[in-house]
Design brief:
5 helices
């Protein structure tokens, strides 16, 4: 079986390419880290396999409609940089 045939079958059955599936999983993992940890955005990006925080930011915005900082604030219920933080995250 050729690579092109495998990709065609993957797309036929799952509606996406293997690489698009990998990127989606990486973005979802990054979103989870943003919601559940206080890690720096660059650290989240690298831990999820992105070569740069810029690429992570662009992909997160594409999938969730917000850049990382805004996404985290929205998930944490923070308005204007103030508000509650998850219990397991230490304040700076």
């Amino acid at each position: 079986m050729t690579g092109a045939h495998l990709i065609r079958l993957f797309r036929q059955h799952l509606g996406t390419t293997p690489m698009q599936s990998v990127w989606k999983r990486r973005v979802e993992a990054g979103a989870q880290l943003l919601r559940e940890t206080g890690l720096a955005i660059s650290e989240v990006a690298y831990q999820c396999g992105f070569q740069s925080p810029f690429h992570f930011s662009r992909m997160l915005r594409k999938h969730f409609g917000h850049p990382p900082r805004a996404y985290r604030r929205k998930m944490w219920g923070i308005d204007e940089g103030h508000g509650p933080r998850p219990k397991d995250v230490a304040s700076p």
